[in-house]
Amino acid sequence: MSPAHVVEPTYEAIKRRLMAGGWTPGSRLESAKIADQLGVSVTPVRDCLYRLAGERMVDFTHGDGFHAHSLSETEYRDMLELHLILLLAALATTPRGRAAPDPQDGDYPDRTAGLFIEMAARSGNGELVASITALGDRLHLARHLDEQLVGETAAELDALAAALTSGTPHGTRNLLLRYHERRAGEAASYARLLGGAS
């Protein structure tokens, strides 16, 4: 096992590259090449790739190694459904009067992740926060396609933040349902662009 001061920055660098689409879905992830690019030895890179495989962000096959994850239509639909369930649970358990978040600065995928993580945090349930964060990391690459496939993403995010600020759970719930329905309706297109079979 590699020391934490090497593994954690290596893990974060590889994960961010995966989330940003730095590798084509299905492409082979060569530990030695990644190690050279990051200026570390092969061992921490392998440790990180195994960890990311456990988080289902990387595909691993014995004898074939590591590959950038290919998202299938079914998997994408399942992730959206679970993401919605978790967010509705967070919304239902949030104490009245909690201050609502505004979307953070940054690009759309990061702002979306930040809003949903903050929604979870408002519930006070650490497990909801951890689950929504992990699932959001897996959905992050697909969020780069949202504007192309569903459009009006900035307005949608602003409406969600405004509904939270106004403290109207019913309105927020409806916007969350619509957010997820719009993406589920284009699941085949997301899967096609992210390398998965239907």
UniProtKB/TrEMBL annotation:
HTH gntR-type domain span: 4-71
GO molecular function terms attached to this record: DNA binding; DNA-binding transcription factor activity
Keywords per UniProt: DNA-binding, Transcription, Transcription regulation
Gene3D superfamilies: Winged helix-like DNA-binding domain superfamily/Winged helix DNA-binding domain
UniProt keyword NAD, yes or no: no
InterPro entries, per the entry: Tscrpt_reg_HTH_GntR, WH-like_DNA-bd_sf, WH_DNA-bd_sf
The organism's place on the tree of life at top rank: Bacteria
Protein known as: DNA-binding transcriptional regulator, GntR family
Native source organism of the sequence: Sphingopyxis indica
